[in-house]
Amino acid sequence: MSEASSGPVGARVAAAAPLLQAGLERAARAAGLRVAAGGETATIGLRSPNAGPAHTAVDVCADATHVTITLATVPDPETWSRLLALLHELLDHSS
Description:
By secondary structure, the protein is an alpha/beta fold.
């Protein structure tokens, strides 16, 4: 994926509720992802179940109890690393 070589892996974040949108954006940034704006290209789509698929290489759908990952292509090592960090952010219930 060419995006990884030009900077941090990008994530398109989508949620119906503004507070949920902000929480998903915080998780993405904490995982070292760049939150994509507008029509900017993103490798990872991070969304709530009520938002449709982002049509990205990696689609991550998160709710209160589950995270579902759908792959359109095999991610490069940097994307895998950021995806693992994102999962830690989304599933960490210690705080």
